[in-house]
Description:
Layout: E1 6-11, H1 17-30, E2 35-39, H2 46-49, E3 61-64, E4 67-71, H3 74-86, H4 91-95, H5 98-106, H6 110-122, E5 137-144, H7 145-161, H8 166-179, E6 184-191, H9 194-211, E7 217-223, H10 230-239, H11 254-293, E8 298-302, H12 311-324
Amino acid sequence: MLERKLLVVTGKGGVGKTTMAAALGLLAAERGLRAIVVEVGDQARLPELFGRTAHDAGVETKLEENLWSISIDPDRALLEWLQTLGGRVSGRVLASSSTFQYFTAAAPGAKELVSMVKIWELTQGERWRRRADGYDLVVLDGPATGHALGMLHSPQTFGAIARVGPIAGQTQRVRELLENPARSGYLAVAQGTEMAVTETLELTDGLRRHLGRELELVIVNGVLPQRFTGAELQRISQLNGRARRPVKRAVSTSQERREMGSDDAVVRSAALAARAVHDRARFQHNQVARLRRRHFEVVGVPFMFTAALDLPAVRRIAEHLGRTL
Length: 325
């Protein structure tokens, strides 16, 4: 998977796409690949995660050895692209032309196309800026499923509008990257919920329809362990609501009675919590089985029992992916 030039990570909003994109970038960097994680939609969360000061949008930020990040600014990317199309003509001059203003205002998905062109540029050995180095792997932290499909479909949309000329040529090159299984791969991130798994299935249908591609992998994030056997669950059920055994002597003080009642309440609460966690874990595993019945390659990432998902936690996720992929 890491031999591709581009990995697209998408899925339902809020399932941990940025975390998994960062973990894949770390994994690639640790294996000696020069990697960059791309954020879109005015997002620039990775520099803060790595304790770095974020540069302006559109500027590549070094996070650590072999690993960079960038938050794409469509306007800046468009100026860079126009300068490559215009030769010696300033990109700002081209951007101020009435034809260009009409194009960006009237064409649906123009900014999505520009973002995809910039992502394509990051995969090239010869960059738009002469002194800029290329990357072995570009990991796209994509938007949620519907927006991601629109973004990936934008080259086809513009290819139908602009059949000749430099825009047509560029959209074709982006399409070739997205449609070539040897150069690009698609990963879905989900959680073990019915809605997230359903959205993964919708993503699969969209990839087939728009690009003729399949998902390489589904990463199920936040999977809880199944801790108890059937016999253990039976014992836990017996604890719930069980009265405290009578002591040999009569309770002589109200304090002792309160302590006995408090102990019973703790036991009941622990039993209910254990049962609830078990049921949730079982539901998650049923959703994973639902994906596997559709013949997806599925990797579960364990739930991280930490106060905050910090860089050490993301490194542990990267190590887990490295062992299981």
